[in-house]
Structures are given as C-alpha cells and as structure tokens.
Amino acid sequence: MNEFERILEGIKDLEEGHAKSLLKLAYSRLDIAVNGNGGYTIEDCGDDLMKMFRDIPRFLDIQKEQKD
Q1: What is the C-alpha separation between 17 and 9, in angstroms, rounded?
Q2: What is the pLDDT of residues 32-68, one digit of tens each?
Q3: What is this structure's pTM?
Q4: For residue 45, what pLDDT is reported?
Q5: Where are the alpha helices (DSSP H) in the chain?
Q6: Residue 61 to residues 20, 33, 52: CA-CA distances in angstroms?
Q7: What whole-number distance in Å separates Cα of residue 41 and Cα of residue 54?
Q8: What is the Cα–Cα distance from 5 to 57, expressed in whole angstroms?
Q9: Which of 37, 34, 40, 7 lies closest to 22 in space, CA to CA?
C-alpha cells in the first residue's frame, strides 16, 4: 500500500471527533495563511497540512497500542 492509500485508509478509520478536530486544524491553518499577517505562507500551510495528513496512520497506530 502506498502513502496515499495509507492516508486515505487512515482517514476512513478516524473516529468522528478526531476527524472533526483534523478539519478544524486544517481550516485554521488555511485561514491564517490566507488572512494572516503574511508570516505564515501558503507554502508553510501546505507543508503543515501534508505533515498532519501523513501523521494520521501513525496516530492511529499509537491509539490502537494504547487501547490494547
């Protein structure tokens, strides 16, 4: 499974509360990039969002370990 597929699978496996939190974080970063003072660029935002999405499978693994 490639990274794209792992991330999509991870998104599908997120609990509703975690998915909503992820959307809120994504929107807040986009808002800062578009409406902020210019210190946080679109490129910074893209990097942060990619990192956030790439961390989903790792987050789910940690969550699963804690439940076991």
Answers
A1: 17
A2: 999 998 899 999 999 999 999 999 999 999 988 888 7
A3: 0.83
A4: 97
A5: 3-13, 16-35, 42-54, 56-67
A6: 19, 30, 15
A7: 20
A8: 10
A9: 7
